[in-house]
Every structure is written in C-alpha cells, then in structure tokens.
Amino acid sequence: MSESSAASGPLDPQSATPLYVQLANAIAEQITSGSLAPDRPIPSEHRLAEEYGVARLTARRATQELRERGLVITVRGKGSYVTPSAEE
C-alpha cells in the first residue's frame, strides 16, 4: 500500500498546511476514489505513521479530522471505518 500512498502525493513538511491536514486530505482522496471502501477500515494510526513518515500523534489528528468531516467513524478497540455515506 506504500506505493499507492506515494502515488497520491507525498506530504510536504514545508507547506503552510499542517501535516495532519495533508494526511487527512490524502486519505479523503482515497475514500472518494474508492480505494478505501465504505464500511471498511482505514489503516491504523501506527500504519499511517509508518507509511507517511509522520509521528503517530499526527496520524491520530488526521483520523480526528476525518471524523469531523464525517468520512470515518471510530469504534473503540476496533479501529476507524469509512462511513457508508462517505462515497457520496
């Protein structure tokens, strides 16, 4: 999956846009393109941190951003899942 994340564009630490927003945008793009299907989990915070080369806290903030946008829901102890309405 690391190739697909690289294809969606690497994160730019020099950008004025915070890294967590850039990461959330990258994941949102995967959701809208259908790479991440509704009712399916997104990668864990640990995996996102490894794949994108960011701190785990940055991955956590990105997941929180996606929840606020209504693209994912988080089930404690199970992970974060793409919402059924996210593809619309």
Overview of the structural elements:
The protein is mainly alpha-helical and 88 residues long. It is 48% helix and 9% strand. The protein has helices at 2-7, 19-33, 45-52, 56-68; strands at 72-75, 79-82. The protein has a two-stranded antiparallel ribbon with strand order 1-2. α2 (19-33) crosses α4 (56-68).
Short description:
By secondary structure, this protein is mainly α. The protein has helices spanning 2-7, 19-33, 45-52, 56-68; strands at residues 72-75, 79-82. Helices cover 48% and strands 9% of the residues.
Short key terms for the protein model shown above:
single chain, mainly alpha, 2 strands, disordered N terminus
Q: What order do the helices and strands come in, and which of them pair?
A:
Elements: H1 2-7, H2 19-33, H3 45-52, H4 56-68, E1 72-75, E2 79-82
Helix pairs in contact: 2-4, 3-4
What is the count of DSSP helices, taking H or I runs of 4+ residues? Answer: 4
Find the count of extended strands (DSSP E, 2+ residues): 2
* Tertiary shape: globular
| SS strand fraction | 5-15%
- Average of the residue pLDDT scores: 89
Major β-sheet, in short? 2 strands, antiparallel
Low-confidence stretches: 1-8
N- to C-terminal separation?
Answer: 24 Å
Strand order of the largest sheet: 1-2
Rg, Å, rounded = 12 Å
User: What's the assembly state of these chains?
Assistant: single chain
Classification by helices and strands: mainly alpha
| H/E series | HHHHEE
Helicity range: 40-55%
